[in-house]
Amino acid sequence: MSDGSISQNEIDALLSGMGGSDSAPAEGAFTPAHQEALQKFFDGNVSALAANLDSMTGKTVSIANPVIELSNREAFLQKVPDMAVAVTIDFDGSLTGDHLFVLAPEFAEKLVSLVNNEESVTIDDMALSVISETIAQYVGKEISAFDGQDVKGVTNMPAEAHHVPKAMVRLSQDFALLTYSVTIDETAFNLWEIIAKKTAEQIADKLNKTESASPVTPVQPIPAQPAPEQGSTMGAMNMPMNGMNGMPQMGQQSMGMGMQGGMPAQGGMVMPGMNPNVQSVQFSPLLNGVTEAEQGNIGLIMDVFMEMTVELGRTRKMIKEILSMGEGHIIELDKLAGEPVDILVNHKPIAKGEVVVIDENFGVRVTEILSPAERISDT
User: Which of 9, 66, 99, 374 could be cross-linked to 178 through a Cys-Cys bond (beta carbons 3.0 to 4.6 Å apart)?
Assistant: First the structure.
């Protein structure tokens, strides 16, 4: 006779459609184009995920490329233990939709014990905060990778971690399931990343659209030719002149005079009476110290947008200090009041400046352009 409690299987049945008999499976799979785009993109992010876990745990973490499949609630819950840690961190901005990570409690405890350097760990609010921060850092790198693929404007909602029965994990009916095999201290764990089906297809479409754009083939600079000896000038010029059909033969003496008086350095021919207008190319101060060979194809990328940021200052905090922050907390930075701020392009310092106010917006007045040596030393 029942004692009035409800079993895990009964919870699963209630939330997945009464035993699963009426639960429609995910229809088929992703199209080959969608599958290939998703696989290529997320394979490329594995190193960022491993680096993130390396830095958080202080251990060398090995992660295999994810297995990506179109799954559904019923099929996924069969892979998950009765209790799970779920971190919701939905996409926002130009790409919206459900996005979450799920991990077994054993994996969560392992991560928290390494991050906090503790032997015995329970999954409490503090542990869930550590898991949330770990996932949020990786998703930040994931969004940066989107930006690098010209998928602009993607952001994410704040990460929220919950330790709940698996049937309480928020899941849409069909979704992209990414299964990462994570090895720490010779122990393998599964990390599941879940993206709503429609959102995953939007990601694939955006990635395919970016790849289908015709790439610009850079023009290779023509190597400088050594100046011909004076004695060979006439011989070199006789070849094209003798081969011109319908052109009257010009006197050798006149031709020689024209060449000696008007031949540009690049080998172009200037006829008598023409005054060549030769001007030196003027570059901005940022190109100081850059050789002519390095400048070769810079004109091809003049219309490319780059991210410019102004950095007020930096500091380092322990995780426990970050987690204890609240409204009104003051963070002391490494710069003095009135000290020039750093101007960065694609996270590389290029200049220094002072903060100004333009109407109702902040701005920066450039006060110094860093030399190439300073730019290298500051990276």
Answer: 66
The domain boundary, picked from 151, 177, 211, lies at 211
CATH of the domain at 352: 2.30.330.10
In-domain check, residue 264: no
Residue 62 forms part of a structural domain: yes
DSSP code, position 119: S
CA distance 374 to 359: 33
Q: Are 369 and 357 in contact (CB under 8 A)?
A: no
Q: End of a domain among 184, 211, 238?
A: 211
In angstroms, rounded to a whole number, what is the distance separating the alpha carbons of residues 152 and 142? 12
Q: Is 374 within a domain?
A: yes
Q: Which residue has the tokens 């069969």?
A: 78
94, 153 contact by CB (below 8 A): yes
Decide if 154 contacts 178 (C-beta within 8 A). no
DSSP 8-class letter at 351: E
Q: For the chain, give me the number of helices (H) and strands (E)? A: 12, 13
Residues 21 and 167 in one domain: yes
Residues 6+ away with beta carbon under 8 Å from 368 = 340, 351, 352, 353
DSSP summary character for residue 97: B
Give residue 60's domain range. 8-211
Q: What residue has token string 């928290």?
A: 112
* Ordered per-residue pLDDT tens for the chain, 379 residues: 445 555 555 555 555 444 343 444 445 689 999 999 999 999 999 999 999 899 888 899 999 999 999 999 999 999 999 999 999 999 999 989 999 999 999 999 999 999 988 888 899 999 999 999 999 999 999 999 998 888 889 999 999 999 999 999 999 889 999 999 999 999 999 999 999 999 999 999 999 987 665 454 454 555 555 555 544 444 444 444 444 444 444 444 444 444 444 444 444 454 555 555 655 545 455 555 555 555 555 566 677 777 889 988 889 888 888 888 888 888 888 888 778 999 998 888 899 998 888 877 888 899 999 887 676 665 5
One-letter identity of residue 334: D
Query: Does the pTM exceed 0.70?
Result: no
Q: How far is CA 137 from CA 89, 115, 152, in A?
A: 11, 14, 19
CA 232 to CA 226: how far, in whole Å? Answer: 13
Q: CA quadruple 240, 242, 243, 249: dihedral positive or negative?
A: positive
